[in-house]
Design goal:
7-stranded mixed β-sheet, 13 helices, alpha/beta, 27 strands
Length: 564
């Protein structure tokens, strides 16, 4: 354990407490603390910097950091950078940004590559002990020798090399005397084990790819299953919390630590269920392909299930944490969670925080023929009726306004109460207007709607008490701000024929001729709004350029989903 960590751990002991457990992990920790197995809680979040973090990582982030926080312990960030061919400092930076955005802080940041010298010495120790050997089998041959779930494997013909020969070959591997794939260092465990992970797993392989931190110093790199448990042990981690797919790796995790044998308080691995969500694919390989093939506009495309994409989309850390907390931490393999529940948590978080403003996405012009030309009125409108603390704003109204094309129907259907010829409707907070005439182009497409207004209905209410069923929103033509608005659907949809998730070709709809009320431009880019009758949106700081406002849909206003 580092001196810094020892100092931190000593400080944390003073504040150790046993909170009321909320899940099986906390019950296990409480039992250990009560028995004196551990006196502190130290966790770590150990991402591999080979891509941007996605929604599947969020649970691990919340469990690792949240558990340490609850017990007054510490959580470190460690980059398990053992595969130089796929890793990059870009991913390191993005992961740090994502963790900060989620509101978590690490006590110290480490890299597995900091331990390369120590891990190499551990490997030499295991060779001398007779439990590691250099193998010449190719990858294909190793797969053949490994056996299956129902058939045991068989020993490599190189398994019984002498300690001296193995030390010599491993040294020559380190010195770059062999080609990639020509040699590999393996643990000598049990080729007949029912656990496939225990059938002489690889410990080191040769790679001449420069490392993003160590450069060309090394041409052999430790495998994840070797480096990960020993990195935990070096750092003094007490609880290695990980998702359920690592359960079968736990015996190997413990084996490496036990064989090295120099750790007084080895870490304990505890697995929890993964988070599977409908309409979400979290394979880094598939996500990388979407980026490299320009199917999406980068890792932070608002359609992507990455944290960078969710952030650009307008999701809040609080809504994501609420989603994780409400879905719970279980020991068994979890059920698939409906993505609609994440959206529900988001709406619940947004509905009291943001101003409700007017925006017209698919505009058609309404000319109020009896309203004075060149006149502009400003109506005082409450920003959020459910949160008076957000105050009010002035909304302009003029002779020409835009309404949603869907709010007009020349031949209205039954139960259509919005604008139609001869019908009086309310322009939200302004006046009652009546449609008198429709102007179309040569193709029969409505270009303008001519109306008259009742000056006595200022504010949207008739003094004689007459009832108007339809209320629609608007944006003043003279004062409205043009904007491009992007509407999103799921990036992935399930294909019944293929029995798999496929990329959705209709995952984004661009509304190039939208208009928003001018108050939107008075707030900084990155501000969230509720567009009345439409949904929640955020102004895009990166894509709003040269005076052109770009706005991303966060989530639609309503859903038929009801949480269980």
């Amino acid at each position: 354990m580092s001196e810094k960590n020892m100092e931190i751990m000593e400080e944390k002991k003073e504040g150790l407490h046993l909170p009321e457990p909320e899940n099986f992990i906390e019950r296990e920790i409480n039992a250990d603390l009560e028995k004196g197995v551990n006196t502190v809680v130290q966790t770590r979040f150990p991402p591999e910097p080979n891509g941007y973090m996605h929604i599947g990582h969020i649970k691990a982030i919340c469990v690792d950091f949240g558990t340490a926080e609850k017990y007054g312990g510490i959580c470190n960030l460690r980059f398990d950078d053992t595969n130089p061919s796929k890793e990059d400092t870009e991913y390191v930076d993005s992961i740090m940004n994502d963790i900060r955005w989620m509101g978590f802080k690490w006590e110290h940041m480490y890299y597995a590559s900091e331990y390369y010298d120590q891990l190499y010495e551990f490997a030499l120790q295991l060779i001398r002990k007779g439990v590691a050997y250099v193998d010449d089998l190719t990858q294909e041959e190793m797969r053949e020798y490994r056996g299956t779930l129902t058939e045991p494997g068989k020993n490599s013909p190189y398994r019984d090399r002498s300690v001296e020969e193995n030390l010599d070959l491993f040294d020559r591997m380190k010195n770059g005397e062999f080609k990639e794939g020509e040699k590999v260092l393996r643990a000598k465990i049990d080729m007949s084990s029912p656990n496939m992970n225990m059938r002489d797993p690889a410990m080191y392989r040769i790679s001449y790819t420069p490392h993003h931190r160590t450069g060309t110093k090394w041409c052999i790199y430790p495998m994840y299953d070797f480096a990960h448990p020993l990195s935990d042990a070096i750092e003094g981690v007490t609880y290695s919390l990980c998702s359920f797919e690592f359960e079968d790796h736990r015996p190997l995790y413990n084996w490496f630590i036990e064989q090295v044998g120099c750790f007084d308080h080895p870490p304990r691995q505890i697995e929890f269920s993964r988070m599977e969500i409908t309409n979400v694919v979290t394979s880094k390989r598939k996500l990388r392909a979407l980026v490299e093939n320009h199917v999406v506009d980068g890792w932070d495309d608002p359609r992507m299930p990455t944290l960078a994409g969710l952030r650009k989309r307008g999701y809040t850390p609080e809504s994501i944490k609420k989603f994780i907390a409400d879905t719970g931490v279980a020991k068994s393999r979890g059920a698939t969670i409906d993505y609609a529940f994440l959206e529900y948590c988001l709406r619940e978080d947004l509905k009291l925080q943001n101003k409700r403003v007017m925006a017209v996405l698919d505009p058609v012009k309404v000319v109020i023929t009896n309203y004075p030309e060149n006149q502009v009125e400003f109506f005082d409108v409450v920003n959020n009726p459910e949160n008076p603390e957000l105050g009010s704003r002035k909304v302009p109204f003029s002779r020409e306004v835009y309404i949603e094309r869907a709010d007009f129907m020349e031949e209205p259907e039954k139960k259509f109460f919005r604008m139609a010829p001869g019908r009086e409707v309310r322009l939200m907070g302004a006046y009652l207007v009546t449609c008198n005439e429709v102007v179309k182009d040569e193709n029969g497409v409505v270009q303008e709607i001519h109306c008259t207004y009742d000056p006595e209905t200022k504010g949207g209410n008739a003094p004689d008490g007459r009832k108007v069923k339809g209320t629609i929103h608007y944006v003043s033509c003279a004062e409205g701000v043009p904007a491009t608005i992007r509407l999103y659907d799921h990036l992935f949809v399930y294909d019944e024929a293929a029995q798999d998730y496929m990329t959705n070709p209709n995952s984004v709809t661009i509304m190039d001729h939208a208009f928003v009320e001018p108050s939107v431009c008075k707030e900084p880019l990155g501000t969230r709004y509720q567009f009345v009758r439409t949904g929640y949106f955020i102004t895009d700081p990166a894509d709003s350029k040269d005076g052109k406002l770009v706005i991303n849909q966060i989530v639609p206003l309503k859903s038929s989903y009801k949480p269980q």
